[in-house]
Amino acid sequence: MRKQYDVAVIGGGPAGYVAAIKAAQLGGRAAVFEKSVLGGTCLNRGCIPTKCYLKTAELMEEIAGCAQRGIVLDAHPSVDLPKAVAHKNSVVKKLTDGVAGLLRSHKIDVYYGEAALATETTLTCGGETYGFDSVLLCGGSKPGVIPIPGAESKNVLDSDALLDLEALPRRLAIIGGGVIGCEMAAAFHGFGSQVTVIEAMDRLVPPMDEEISAQLKKSLEKKGIRVLTSQKVSAIQDQGTGSTVLCQDGTRVEADKILICVGRAADLDCLGALKDRIRLERGKVSVDEQMRTSIPNIYAPGDINGKHMLAHAAFKMGEAAACAAMGRPEACDLRYVPSCIYTSPEAAGVGLSEKAAREQYGRESILVGRYFFQSNGRALASGRGEGFVKVVVEKRYQELLGVHILGGDAAEMIAEAAALLHAEVPADEIADMIHAHPTYSEAFMEACAAALGRCIHLPAGQP
Ligand code: NAI
C-alpha cells in the first residue's frame, strides 16, 4: 500500500475538490485522484467555458445595438473563433490553477490518473494501491446519448467537442432544448452561425416555470434562432460535408454540425470492483442526505448521484459528504438550489414553479405577482427592458414559494430570492424592504408587492 488517507476523493471537480478542502479543514488527511484536469466539467467543459462564449456573444449583440446610443462604429464586427477558444482556455487555466493552489495550501495530495475502487477500503491509481477510511466518489457526469441512426456521424458533437471547435459551423442544429442547448444556441448564434434548436417536449427547459420557458423561446426566436418544440428526432443522415436531421413528423433540418445535449449520465467508472455492490437508482448512485451510498464509508456527492446536476449543488453536497466522513455530519439542505441559464437575457429560478405550487397547495391558494423590466429604470437605461420577475406566493401566510426571472441580470438577482426563501421571509416583508434605486432588484420587491395587490409602480387595477 502506497499511502493511507482519512478521506480519499476520486474526482477533482466541484464536489471533489471542495470535499477534500473541507476534510482537511476538519483535520483529515485527504487526497484527490483526478484522471484529467482539476476543476471537472464546471471549469473545463461546462459553466466557465460557456460563460466566456456567452459574454462574447452578448458583446456582439450589444455592438449591433450600439448605434441607437449614438456610438458610431466604422467596421463590421466578427468573431475570430480560434482567438475566442484561446481566451476561453486562458480563463479556464487561471481557475484550474487556482484550484490546484487551494489544494496545495491545504496540504492535500493530488494524484493524476484514473482511480477506481478495489475494495471497501482501497483504491488503485496508476498501478499503485492507496488505503482510506472513507472514500468520496465524485466522478461527475458525461454527455448522454440518444439511440438514433446516424448519431455516430462525424458531424455530431457533444458539448465538450463543440467548445473546442476552431471553425465556425455555418449551420448548427442542436438536439435538446435544455440548459446546454439554450446556452450553446445563444453563443453560436452570437458568433454568426444559423442555429436551430430541436426539443422533444412542448417547451424549452421543461423543469423551469412555464412562463420562463415561453418567454425564453420568444427571446431566442427574436434573435433569429429557430426553435422547434414537440419534435422527436428519428435519424441523422450525412449528405456531402453536411448532415440532415430528420424528425418523426417529416421535418428536415440541414446542418454542418449537430450538437446533441439531451441530458448527462452519471460517470460510474470510479466504482471499479464495487460496481455491482453499490446501489444505483436509474443509472445514478443512490445516496442518503449525508451523500452516503449503500456502503457506509463510501459517499457519492455531485452529478454522480443525479440529485441536482449543478456545480453549486455539488459544492454543498461535497461539503456534506466530507463532514459526514469526518464524523461531523451537517444538514445538506437542497430545497432552494437556484438554476440559471446564461442566455441574454438570462433566465433563473428557485423554489416552486407556479404549476407545482398550485398542485401542491391547491389552485386557489396561490398568488402570483409579476413585474416587467419594461417598467424598471435601470433595465431601460441599460437597453435590457426584456423579461420580468414572477413570484409565487402562498395566500394565507404570504409565504414565498418560488421566484422566476427572465432578464438582464437574472442569475445575479436570483441569489437574493434564494436567500430570502431559505430564511423563510414572507412576501409582505420583502415588499417592504428598501431596494436601491435604480436597480434590477427593485423588480423583485415590486413583484412581491404586485402579488399582494399593493405595487406602487403598476397602474391601479393591474394585478
Ligand atoms: P437538460 O436535462 O437540461 O436538457 C435536455 C433536454 O433535451 C430536455 O429539454 C429534454 O426534453 C430534451 N431531450 C431529451 N431527449 C431528446 C430527444 N431525443 N430529442 C430532442 N430533445 C430531447 O440537459 P443538458 O442541457 O444536456 O444539460 C445537462 C446538465 O448540465 C443539466 O443538468 C444542467 O442543469 C447542467 N448544466 C447547467 C448549466 C447552468 O447551470 N447554466 C450549464 C450547462 C449545463
From TrEMBL:
Subcellular localization, as worded in the UniProt entry: Cytoplasm
Documented EC number(s): 1.8.1.4
Transmembrane stretches, start-end: none
Cofactor: FAD
Origin: domain of life: Bacteria
List of residues binding NAD(+): 176-183, 199, 263
Location of the FAD/NAD(P)-binding domain: 5-318
Family of this protein: Belongs to the class-I pyridine nucleotide-disulfide oxidoreductase family.
Protein name stated in the entry: Dihydrolipoyl dehydrogenase
Organism: [Clostridium] leptum DSM 753
Lineage, highest ranks first: Bacteria, Bacillati, Bacillota, Clostridia, Eubacteriales
Gene: lpdA
